[in-house]
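#dry-run=false #mode=assembly
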Amino acid sequence: MSATDTAVVPAAPVALLEGDTLSLKVGPLGRTDFVRYAGASGDFHPLHHDEVYAREAGFPSVFGMGMLHGGILGLHLARWVGPVNIRTFSIRFTGQVWPGDELEVTAQVERVHEIEGVRVADLRLAVTRQTGDEAIRGSAVAVVA
Amino acid sequence: MIDQSAVGTELAPVSFPIDRSKLAELAKSFGDDDPVWWDPDAAQTAGFDGIPATPTVTVLISHWRSGGVTGLTQAIGADLARVLHGEVAWEYLAPVRAGDELTARQVIKDVSTREGRRGGAMTFITIDTEFTNQRGELAVRRTDTLIERGA
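#status=ok
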């Protein structure tokens, strides 16, 4: 898995307009990525690394933690709008991510408006599998220039 | 099995450090090798006051709660093998940076049951967490919805 972005992570609010979009591909994700995230995050739920446990629980194989692709989405949101400019971030897990999946991370500015004199963007977010199935649907509010 | 009687239960508070080694591991696990997420000079060059954290940084609490994620599931009385993560929402009130010390206070806010699409009752458990930093500022408010699938 590699999605290294050469752009500088913005510290100050970024100029964004309604309709601006971010779209990038991530993956394929594999069991090694799940295990690496388990070690990084401390999420050792066996459904995500123990194949025998996952099958006994009724799943075809292990699958990725929602917070792995949720974290990937958050990372790319932060790279786009700046980590310290995010005010809210909400995600709903709408489907699982399986070994071998390639993901598309998308963000779109739905509206730019002011809250108490501060310019903010309402963003619509998604993580979509190569099958077209959505794994995450989300939203965020970020301070923009 | 968890039921409505759990609503209002406060979990034991957990304090944990935001240290740059774990920030590096987290960024790299997301496929990002940019040193801005762990190197003080790179962060300063990019214009940050301290090393910034990615939006899901509060997951690091899992290293510090006894038993981690499985410990949390047990603490709320849910069945580990049947629990899935449904939703998460974060509200950011003060920046989280490397070197911070966060204290989390967690409460079970709601427990509700409804019929799943494929039959069997699904139990939705809402947990609210407030993360306060070493200066006593409320830094992050987080709400998780866990789903316990029917037995």
